[in-house]
Amino acid sequence: MENNNINSRQYWNQRFMSGDWDQNMGQEQTYYFYSLLMKMLPDWFKTILRQNRYSIVDFGCAEGQGIPLLAAGLNSDIKGIDFSECAIDRARERFPQFQFEVGDIWNYDYEVEVSIMSNIIEHFPNPFELLSRMATITQKYMVVMVPLEEENLMSEHCFTFLYQNIPTCMGDF
């Protein structure tokens, strides 16, 4: 698939509709990364989220495979947001017990208590600009998972995260 505009709704709808997402094991990758995320989150942090029952928004949720893992592990209300209508339609079919919404991370104007972004910001040439914007709508916590020290970037990845280029502060976070 040609990489003309990987951050366009058209590109991602095509990925999901064409079967490319399934052929490249997108569902399995999503499940794997969210399993890893739940394993790697510190116990004290999971306890805070569980005790406060913060509302959580998973941005770039794709077809929603991570939402049940987050809901079970964090005992919270979780909403999945993706700008691909096709992905959200599939998420709603597969996981009708959860809330999914078509939305663009750049134009999401509602405040959220906890934002989760798993393996999405590397798709943007300006990931820290995106995180700065997310810091303005996130009230409590941002959880961000990225590939670290990735060599030979895959065609959809626009940015390499290195220990030395990740800021330790972002807005009030």
Give your account of this protein's structure.
By secondary structure, this protein is α/β, with parallel strands linked by helices. It has helices spanning 9-17, 20-23, 26-40, 43-52, 67-74, 85-94, 127-137; strands at 56-59, 78-82, 99-102, 112-118, 138-145. Strands 3-2-1-4-5 form a 5-stranded parallel β-sheet. α6 (85-94) links the parallel β2 (78-82) and β3. It starts with 8 loop residues before the first helix and ends in a 28-residue tail after the last strand. The mean pLDDT is 90.
Write the layout of secondary structure elements.
Layout: H1 9-17, H2 20-23, H3 26-40, H4 43-52, E1 56-59, H5 67-74, E2 78-82, H6 85-94, E3 99-102, E4 112-118, H7 127-137, E5 138-145
Parallel strand pairs: 1-2, 1-4, 2-3, 4-5
CA gyration radius, whole angstroms = 15 Å
Order of helices and strands: HHHHEHEHEEHE
Strand order of the largest sheet: 3-2-1-4-5
**First and last CA, distance:** 37 Å
| Overall outline | globular
| Helicity level | 25-40%
Runs with pLDDT <50, length 5+?
A: none
For the residues shown, what is the average pLDDT?
90
Report the portion of residues in β strands: 15-25%
- What class, by secondary structure content? alpha/beta
Helix run count: 7
Number of beta strands: 5
Biggest sheet character:
5 strands, parallel
In short:
Helix content is 39%, strand content 16%. With 173 residues, the protein is an alpha/beta fold.
